[in-house]
Amino acid sequence: MAGALNAAMADALAADDRVLVFGEDVGPLGGVFRVTDGLSERFGERRVFDTPLAESGIVGTAIGMAMNGLRPVVEMQFDAFAYPAFEQITSHLAKMRNRTQGKVELPVVIRIPYGGGIGGVEHHCDSSEAYYTHTAGLRVVTPGTPADAYHLLRDAIDSPDPVIFLEPKRRYWAKGEVAFDRTATPMDRAVVRRTGKDVTLIAYGPMVTTAMETAEAAIEEGWDVEVVDLRSLSPFDDETVAASVRKTGRAVVVHEASGFCGYGAEVAARLTERCFHHLHAPILRVTGLDIPYPAPKLEEHHLPSVDRILDTMARLQWDDVPFENEVRGA
Amino acid sequence: MTLTSLPLRHLLPSETPIGLLDADGRLIDGSELTMPGDEVLLDLHRRMVVGRRFDTQATALTKQGRLAVYPSSRGQEACEVGAVVALDAQDWLFPTYRDSVALVTRGVDPVQTLTLLQGGWHLGYDPYELRVAPQCTPLATNTLHAVGVAHAARYKGEDSVALVLLGDGATSEGDTHEALNFAGVWQTPTVFLVQNNGYAISVPMSKQNAAPSLAHKGIGYGIPSLLIDGNDPAAVYSAVRQAVETARAGGGPTLIEAVTYRIEAHTNADDASRYRDSDEVAAWLGRDPLDRLEAYLTGRGLLDDARREAVAAEAEAFAASVRKGMNADVVSTVVRPQSLFDHVYAERTAALREQAAMLEAELAGEEA
Ligand SMILES: Cc1ncc(C[n+]2csc(CCOP(=O)(O)OP(=O)(O)O)c2C)c(N)n1
Questions:
Q1: Which of B343, B361, B352, B367 minimizes the C-alpha distance to B126?
Q2: Contact B82/B290 with Cβ under 8 angstroms?
């Protein structure tokens, strides 16, 4: 996946000299995850460069550059280190089009490696998607496969709207075929990764792989699982997701972030509004625990696992859903 | 003007504010700043008179309920006008909420200038038309935008400079430091003008800053900095002009602290008597930037009663046009409910189309 992201930036840089890539350590080092490896060498330090260590500065100057005709692609080194830039993102990046009645658009991409599962120490594993999806004016996308990593990033760079591009860092090393022909699914559409008839598993980013593994494991239990990869968290593709849930009548939403006020709550609410009469059970969530991201040796208990998803699916099909948090805490 | 001319080659600002005219409008001998030409001074005078009249008109509009809020810049006209006149057409202005006089000086339509404060929309003008960024409400965030715009200008081979206005309180925000640092490292053509009007709402400088001056904050970023008399229009014009020329020639950023005073309260909603006494205000009234320039120009024989009257008439006509433009009919046409959904994304999303339909139905119901 890291290679696909790298190729996407290289192709975008080659196609349009308004595209610039910058951030902390993205130059000669190629980023701490090597996602920008070789780009400054190939395109020069004018196009791909290191900035001072200041996230608000990176996003704030990117806003100014975009105001003046450029297309910045910036990297936040890790999820929790994007928080110093939060004001620039929410007050300006997201709102500039609106504030200026459409006169100023900001085609900025903010790449954020996010999520856990790599044994990182604190502040390196947050899933911060709900902060961004709650903010009108931003697009928020996250690839679940290497092919999507390429195409979503190309689309994000082409987008006239600002895009928060969440990279599931534990999948950086995932392998997969990438067709570079640019006829892929549009950026704001979800895709059905696997068809099934009993239950829809809704996942995104790092959890797409886990959801696919769960679907395979579920065969033994006699369940035919459909997996929907959201890809675009905002805007949300109601059509694709609701069609799947209407077909299966059951849905589980999976994400790494804490459940309380999390992204899954929005998905469950929307689907309930749209599919109530097709549902055989409430929509359930399998999420991270409602705790600050735990220390590396404890993260396996926090993150949704295949087993935890299977257990939740079991309750969904045969039991009344417990009233309390028991479901997620099981 | 060469890049090495005084005082820009110095990183250390002077101990006291430098100027060209003293409080009585007398020329200060041996100033490091260059006296602007007579034409410029007359232009500054005319625009300051118009700017002040605009300011009092806007304050009156708040009393009539036409404006939701207005932060007056009365007393700060030397900064508002001097800085803007020092820019060329290709340069960018990054103003804050207080800088409406700077906007009208730049040529932004007064009614469009007041749209934000009137509550019609967040912005009433096209930022690209006169290269004026939206007036910034979150403190100090505009400093980074100015650095970005300036960087992009250089990337594209344009020779434009970005001037950013900020207050003394805003210098405490992290973004100011990040912007100065980025500007210093990248050597962007950015000019930072701090209008030190003594207070951030109620908080005085003594509780805001421990450095000898705000200009001293440039040193740590390798940015040449000036401490000037912000009630001296000639000084503000000269310092900003010099900084703009330096930046345009590739000499990098400059930080200018202009020491001035806010005569009115923070906004019409603020009660300034709770944090400062009337003696202080009275003392600053004696340092009025307009009186000072008038005294100088009159003494030089450049300003006579005829010209004074002509300028006053221009200001009155401007105020009348502002009053006319702010009438309720014009305002109501600006506020179109469906525009709520127009500019959130490049195209309306499915969710926004749904919500627009809901609002449409609500409005139809109201009319029925
Ligand atoms: C980030 C942020 N914090 C707080 C405020 C609320 N606020 C508005 S104006 C102001 C004081 C600003 O003082 P200064 O920078 O000196 O500018 P002045 O108003 O004197 O022109 C404050 C605290 C704000 N606008 N933005």
A1: B343
A2: no
Which one, of A140, A18, A24, lies nearest residue A67 by Cα?
A: A18
Task: State the Cα torsion A263-A269-A272-A274 to the nearest 10°.
Answer: -90
Q: Pairing mode, if any, of strands A163-168 and A199-203?
A: unpaired
Compare CB distances from A97 to B175, B343, B350 and report the shortest one's residue: B343
Among B245, B340, B82, residue whose Cα is nearest residue A102: B340
Gap between the Cα atoms of A280 and B150, Å rounded = 58
Residues 6+ apart with CB under 8 A from A84: A54, A55, A56, B174
Closest residue of chain A to B180, computed from CA coordinates: A57
B175: nearest CB among A56, A160, A236: A56
Residues from chain B that touch A87, judged by Cβ atoms under 8 A, are 138, 141, 175
Total CB pairs under 8 A between chain A and B = 137
The candidate with the shortest Cα–Cα distance to A258, out of A77, A163, A78, A125, is A125
Instruction: Name the residue among B150, B148, B162, B169 with its Cα closest to residue B97.
Output: B169
Tens of pLDDT, residue by residue over B314-365, are: 999 999 999 999 876 655 556 788 999 999 999 999 999 999 999 999 999 8
Question: How buried is B336 (Cβ within 10 angstroms: 0-12 exposed, 13-18 middle, 19+ buried)?
Answer: exposed
Residue B256 near residue B14 (C-beta atoms within 8 A): no
Amino acid at B168: D
pLDDT tier at B6 (50, 70, 90 boundaries)?
very low
